[in-house]
Amino acid sequence: MAHFPERGSRRPMSEINVVPFIDVMLVLLVIFMITTPLLTQGVKVSLPQTESKAIPPEQKEPLIVTVDAQGNYFLNISSKPSQPITARVLSNLVATQLSSAEQDQRPVLVRGDKNANYGKVVEAMSLLQQAGAKSVGLITQQTARPNG
Which of 36, 40, 52, 129 is the least crowded, having the fewest Cβ atoms under 10 Å away? Predict the structure, then answer.
């Protein structure tokens, strides 16, 4: 007859085996070390192009803020529309134009250069809203239609 140890002769193991736990943690650490730099870098995307409707001609002349590639602001209703203006001047001019009651329907638009810093375009939109614009639109370039 084979000799088997008695059931009660072995004591249960009271320690946790941490080796698999450490292995899993090291694998996760390596994965996060590799993916974290990828998350902080910009990713090139191709945004969808859509057809947009033109502003109806019966509306008042829109206030158009332009942000060029260098991040300068221009306003179409300023005394010199081709001269860059500061954020404070932009905010004051727009607030003055939108303060009268009949200007509620006046469209406010932002035209940003495709090479402009995204933060500057968002800052322009924020300045317009602080100056009293109820809504701010973006001017886009219409996509070329194929003949057919």
Answer: 40
